Amino acid sequence: MTEQASVAAWTVAKISPMFRLQWEEAQGFHVLLYPEGMVKLSGSAGEIMKRIDGKSPVSAILADLRAAYPGVDLEADVYKFLETAYDRGWLRTVDPR
Predict the structure, then answer these.
(1) Is the pLDDT score of 2 beyond 60?
(2) What is the CATH number of the domain that holds 23?
């Protein structure tokens, strides 16, 4: 279910309608809920996903992550995660029109 194989700095993503991001307080991690179950996200995946708002391009998400985690080389990992999220159908690209 691949929508987009390559993610660019100007890509604006939103969480696909069949998924909902939620913080699980008792377990201490973010999950993606969908009708058949849930996906437990790692800490870094949760940090990326909670910044996906359907308005901010990847470049802004990266800037926010750099501010939150100064000195961490995270760009390649963020792009890799986003491509994986698209491949799994968790994300869709926002139509710029």
Answers:
(1) no
(2) 1.10.10
